Amino acid sequence: MTVKISSQMRAGATVIALEGEINSTTSGGLQAQLLQLIGHGSFVLIDLAGVSYLSSAGLRTLLIVYRHAQQMDAEITLVGLSKEVSFVMSATGFLDFFTIGEDLAAELERAGL
Asked: Which of 27, 65, 74, 83 is the least crowded, having the fewest Cβ atoms under 10 Å away?
C-alpha cells in the first residue's frame, strides 16, 4: 500500500491531499515529500479525507512535519479527518498540535482563499 500525495498552490496556500494508509511502510517517503512542501512562512492545508488508516509511524511523521513547520514559521491546518483518524489523534494528544478544519472548502473560505 502506498500513500498518494498531490499538491497545488491556491491563492497563497499550499494544499496537500493525501490518500491511502499512513503506516511504517509509507511514512518515511511521505515525510520526505511533506517536508519539501513547507516553505518559510507558508500556509499549508493538509487534506486527510482520503486517509483510511494512521499508525504510530504516521503520527510520528505528522509530529516531525509540525516541528519543521514551527522552525519555518509556517502554519499547518489539517482538514478532512475521518472519525478513525480523529480518534487516534485525539487519544494520543496530537489534535492539540494542529489547527483542525472540517473540510478543505470550508477552511479555504475561512482563510479568505
From this structure: 83
